[in-house]
Amino acid sequence: MDLARLAYDRSPITIQNLLITFYGWKLKRLRYGHDFSIHAAFLERSQYFSKEAIREYQECRLRELLNHCQNHVPHYRRLMQMHGITAETVSIDNIRKYFPVITKADLRNSTREFLSTAFHRRGRIKINTSGTTGSPLIITTTRSAVQHNYAFFARFLRWAGVSVNQPSATFCGRVIIPSRQTRPPFWRRNYALNNTLFSSYHIAEDTITAYIQELERSNPRFIDSYPSAIFTVAHYVNRNAIQHGIRPKAIITSSETLLSHQRIEIEKAFQCPVFDQYGSAEMIAFIGQCEHGTYHANPEYGLLEVLDNQGRPVAKGVVGQLVFTGFLNFAMPLIRYRIGDSAILANYACKCGRNFPVIESLAGRTDDLIVTPDGRYVGRLDPIFKGLKHIKESQIIQERPDLIVIRLVRETGYTEETGRELVEALKGRVGDIAITIEYCDAIPRTATGKFLSVVSKVPSRLDRHESESRT
């Protein structure tokens, strides 16, 4: 433990609140400055652009990005020289011809090659990714790009009927409470951002009542949380029929795949809609639900592709790998970057009137999909739990191509018949794979507090294909 961490843990709560508020003040200056205001005003207008205007904007931003890369980014300069092309050669329609998909492994192995020489070292900001798969990254960006990113988040909040300035509560992955603490308060105040930070690591059956009481007292306009954290509180509220005065306008979820049963439970407990959001530390994508509950990829943020294992665009309604070209971060531009998640493009428009790509579902991480013996990828497995009672938490782990383990945290009333129904429902989706159930008291989170509903230890064909293509 470093000295700063040790000093924080040993400080009185009042001092801890002041330290967090000081850090919040620095974040506020970083996120909501002059560039934020400019971008936020533009995004209010651009969300109602025609399809033609959106495409024209994307083509313009793509040329601007490629001109920058040709002049300042070693990796792309060499690639464009090799093909004998300039920014004017490339369009949305032919970008696949000249730029191969890159992966996190490519970025990790050659980080310096993706850094722009146009930015002085003092003007760069470094962001550490969480590395839920055991492979964290360090992303380089700029203050302007960060503010541009938060302009998108602010627009998303407006879709949910709230704003960045309103009182909020956050269930965070940061360690804000000493691990040894067993009594409340399990929260700290960030007065600079009008926010109450709740520890995700201290939520337990004997502490949730204190969380509920503080949520009532602080009366947040919206709650921002990992799905698994706020779901645990919501499940407790519903199971115990607790009457409370928590009245947020919206629940904002991100960083994990939001499962359908979690959404139902959360909305029931807090009597407000859940708005799910998807982004990345690499600053290449922003997907969020509008006021009609539809997932939209924000086209001003970058180009979206949904591809099969051979790198070809999939049909709408078919699951594919998400590949993005980001328009925000010129300090570390990423062109056709496979982020490691999968989704399904919808073949319908949204009633909200925005001409944005519609995502039917975010199907989960590609390394968190079940790989069947016949080569199929199976995601969105939460429907197998529909109608089953007395299961508090679950996790599906594919240990081998021929073995899946279901971890279950049971509640009073659980029967072996429930387990048999669960196994049969899963077999109906994955086919002839051995399935066993393992009972446990709790399912561990990642180092950043995230809950993984599906974990595959089986390398996918896509991973093997990429490895072979680089050798």
Q: How large is the radius of gyration? A: 23 Å
- The CATH homologous superfamily of the largest domain is termed ANL, N-terminal domain
Number of helices: 13
Give the percentage of residues in beta strands. 15-25%
Which class of secondary structure composition applies to the elements?
alpha/beta
CATH class of the largest domain: Alpha Beta
* Fraction of residues in helix: 25-40%
CATH level-3 fold name of the largest domain: Rossmann fold
What is the strand arrangement across the widest sheet?
A: 4-5-3-6-7-8-9-10-14-13-12-11
Would you kindly provide a brief summary of this structure?
With 471 residues, this protein is α/β, with parallel strands linked by helices. The chain has 13 helices and 20 strands.
